[in-house]
Amino acid sequence: MAEWDIKKLQILRTLRDRGTVTATAEALLMTPSAVSQQLTNLSKQLGVRLLEAQGRRVRLTDAAQLVLRHAEVVFAQLERADAELTGYLRGEAGEVRVGAFSTAVPALVVPAVLRLRAAHPGLEVWVREAEAAEAYELLSAGQVDLALSLAAHAPTARDARYSRVPLLADPLDVALPVGHPLAGAPGLRLADLSAERWIFGGSGPWSEITTAACEAAGFLPEQAHSAAGWTAILAMVEAGMGIALVPRMAAAERASGVVMRVLDADQPRRHVVAAVRRGAESAPAVARLLAALREVAARR
Questions:
Q1: What is the per-residue pLDDT across 36-66, written as a single tens digit (0 to 9) for each?
Q2: Is the pLDDT of residue 203 over 50?
Q3: Confidence band for 87, pLDDT divided at 50, 70 and 90
Q4: Among 4, 7, 53, CA closest to 34
């Protein structure tokens, strides 16, 4: 039987995720030569070739991909074992580290923390604001235990590394200045706003969400200004510089001179999901936080 070394398998897994030996070494706080040596030893232990040269880089062989498919099952089981041991040793106490995008922090995470604080005062939640891509990097690296992101920017449900939990479909409302001709129009549709000037980010998730929603309504939005923060976006809407789609979770930041209109017939939505490393969902502290997040989401 081949000799399976968990530490070396984790290095191989990180190389697959990071793409280069240098990036793998940085992620694992190792030297590139140590990474290469460990993978060479793993190849000898398993009796298969794991890497092959591709220009100045290396790529994983089919044998390496086969090894990792089985290793993911092992890693998930180890996460379950670690979760059960943590529950046994800590009981009600413990810490959960959360990476969440900006509007999810006040709308979902903070109310969930308040629930947990009342029911399980020994359970600490540590929060780090992070966009989707960063949140999953932190989750993969073990720096957070739970990531909150938008489904459109999360790994697919087929990704063996994570368990995904749908939380809610957050409606997108349109922000108009108070004096806008359509501010009080009945039955407002997104398509009615095709001739307007729009405010959204120059790139990233919100740019994609706004563009996709407008394209689904039959038009391409004309971008008047670019901004990423809701305070800046709503200030420009209030000044009559354009209009914007705003997630209902961000409605607390609404300016007094802005009217938020629900789009009756073609209401776009963004889907919010939580994710944990596969197997870790059974850890008592993580399970309690997931339950609290689901309760908060259900009330929205």
A1: 999 999 999 998 999 998 877 889 999 999 9
A2: yes
A3: low
A4: 7
Handedness of CA 24, 164, 170, 108 (dihedral sign): negative
User: Of the candidates 66, 59, 75, which has an alpha carbon nearest to the alpha carbon of residue 7?
Assistant: 75
Strands 258-261 and 244-247: unpaired
Token pair listed for 101: 């995008």
Domains, in order of start, for the chain: 6-73 (1.10.10.10), 91-168+271-299 (3.40.190.10), 170-269 (3.40.190.10)
From CA 130, how far away is CA 181, in angstroms rounded? 37
Please give the Cα distance from 165 to 44 (Å, whole number): 39
pTM of the model: 0.71
Task: Name the percent of the chain lying above pLDDT 70.
Answer: 94
β-pair partners for 190: none
Rounded CA gap, 37 and 34, in Å?
A: 5
- Whether the pLDDT of residue 89 is over 60: the answer is no
Distances in Å between the Cα of 94 and the Cα atoms of 68, 111, 126, 141 are 31, 19, 11, 20
Give, for 18, the enclosing helix (H) or strand (E): helix 6-18
